Structures are given as structure tokens and as C-alpha cells.
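HOLO CASE FILE
Compound: zinc ion
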Amino acid sequence: MTGVINAMTVDVEDYFQVSAFDAVVPREKWETFDSRVAANTERLLALFEERGVKATFFVLGWVAERFPTLVADIAKAGHELASHGYAHHLVYSQTREAFRDDVRRAKDVIEGACGQSVSGYRAPSYSITKASLWAFDVLLEESYRYDASVFPIRHDRYGIPDAPRHFHIVTRGAGRLAEAPGSTIRLGPVNLPVAGGGYFRILPYMWTRWGISRLNGREGRPAVFYIHPWEIDPDQPRIAAGWLSRFRHYSNLDGCEGRLRRLVREFRFGRVQDCLTQLALI
Ligand SMILES: [Zn+2]
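Model generated. C-alpha cells follow.
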């Protein structure tokens, strides 16, 4: 274990709200699903408590509005509250004004529930791409101070393959914003994702372990790890989506909590704020 503090991040949303199920689960049907997000997030809180880990929770505004006690519990346990937007719309599929309404509403609801000021944002499905860089200006105008929505890889739904791979400052017309990109390892001409979500659940554990060790050791940089509450819930109801979405969403759900326990034993983790302070970026 090195002295580097990695960012532990959780995107707090329910199993039926993921972008991969957009086509089969319209937003107006969300209310009709059996919600499991509060119970799953409480399990993550217990796991972090056991290991003394403080994390950043990017909460969906829709969830914060319905479960304000959950948001308050996260804050009470000493974690950082941040925003995952309100209604889980991909950034590049929204107009600038619709995006502004969405991030403003999410910030208001989460701040109201936790009593902390929210300064971080992560877009649904890492959807700040070259087509939606204007989102940084809107975030600055709406008093966000950092973003964690850029993944410097090639992917069918997201990614800016040539974006900087480590924490950095983005300078825009509206000001300066810190960026905490999804973690990658550079191999030859490509960046490969190493720290979170399906990459953590589906690929062998040793891939993540090797990736974070290499980032912390050889590169001397923190990793940004991400997970969703539904990823530790093997009993969640199954949704009839296409095979690729089902493969990405349902593979190895039963092994994920054990892997996460191992990960927090093997590396140091903190809030995104802790990483930004460590790097003097905020
Ligand atoms: Zn999400």
C-alpha cells in the first residue's frame, strides 16, 4: 500500500435508472418499480464504516427527493455528497438550458437533504464528451467546483480518448473547474479502463489491483474508483433489455461486494475532496 489516497465514488441510483435500460424503462414508469437503492446504499455505508473509508456519493436528485433520510445518513457518516444530476439524462442529449435545470434542481434537492454544500458533479454514463464540453461552463455558472464525468477512453456511449488521464484543471470561458477523470492505464497507443463499474465486476479482480497499483506506484497518482449500489445486489429484479446491456448489468453481481471488501483492504481511499486537496487543485 502506498501513501496515495484514491477516490472512492458511488453513483447513487436505482437498478432501473441506468442508461442501458433507457429504451425499455421510460422515466414516467420509475415510480412503479420496487426501489432498492436505499437498502443497497446502507449496505455500502456499513462496509465503508467497517473499514473506516470516507467516500464521495454522487446522488441522483430524483433519489434524494424521495429518500432524504438516506442522504442525511450519508452526510452523518462523514462522507461527501455530490450530484449525479436530477433525472439521469445523458448530457449530450440535452439542450444547454435543460442541462442547467437538471443540475440546478439536483444540487438544490441534495443540499436541502444533507445541509452540506454540493460542489461536485458526475454525469450519467460519463456523458461529457467532445459534443458536450459546454457543460463545464454551465457547471461553473451553477456553482459546481469540480467534475468527474470525463472518461479518457473509446466506448460506444461515452469517452474523450485524448483527454488528460489524471486529475487536472479545465479552463473555460466561465472559469476554472477541477476534473477527476475515470481511471485508465496507458498501454501503447490506448487507454484502458481499470477502476470501477463493469470493469471491476466483469474483468478479473487482478486487473483492477494491477491498474491501481501501477497508478499509485509507477505514476504516483490517485485512482478514481466508482461503483453503484445495485452492483452489490444480486437479487434485484431482472429487466428485459438487449443482451449487451444485460451482460454489462448482471455479470458477477454476486461476487462484487466481496471484491469491494478486498479492494478497500488493499488500497487507501477517501473522498474526491481529499484527492483535490492532496493535489492542491481546490
Ligand atoms: Zn448513473
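CASE NOTES: DSSP finds ten helices and eleven strands in the chain. The mean pLDDT is 96.
CLOSED: yes
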